[in-house]
Amino acid sequence: xxxxxxxGSLTRYYAGEWENVAEKATATDRPEDRxxxxxxxxxxxxxxxxxxxxxxxHALEWxxxxxxxxxxxxxxxxxxxxxxxxxxxxxxxxxxxxAVLPEEWDDDPALMMSNVAGFRSRYSHxxxxxxxxxxSSFEFTFEGEDIDGTRVVFGxxxxxxxxxxxxNAATWQANAAELGAWKRASPDRSTSLELQARYAFAILSDxxxxxxxxxxxxxxxx
Length: 222
Description:
By secondary structure, the chain is an alpha+beta fold. The chain has one domain. Helices cover 44% and strands 12% of the residues. Strands 2-1-6-3-5-4 form a 6-stranded mixed sheet. A hairpin with a 5-residue loop joins strand 4 and strand 5. Helix 3 packs across helix 8, helix 6 runs antiparallel to helix 8 and helix 7 crosses helix 8. The longest helix has 22 residues.
């Protein structure tokens, strides 16, 4: 099962009016269905915003039109998992980082330490199972219901962008030209954890930049 990352309106996403790296999603053709979907998502957003209350400085707001711009990338689970572990080991340097991504990487000891209750992770919006990042500035992550009622973990696009910049400064210190080269070097499954992580980092950095610039949510798609 592949992993794509989508940036854009959730109306466009759930209507299927977008293409991932490999194929076109199944689209909702009827305009009245898209309008009903948009209204439902806006209502969900209002409820979510109200539930956060004073924990956010401004009510959640972004362009929910199906015509809003969108951006996608495919780091794959191997790339994304390698990046998550790279971040976890960056904040637990006494542990020995694996050379390649383990099969059961979600049980990795460094990742588990980064998720221990009370631990203040520098990369919380990357390592804490976030599936949907909202275009709002807040430091915490939280669990709640997605539009379809699924329980997911939410984060902030602004905070994720800053945390990725901190991770780069603490480890690779890569410049824009290097990130461009990493993004073009699609690895295979036998590639080292670091090269997988670099590839995913370059993709994620581009997408979160677009999310912040266009004030749009970012979502894992799998």
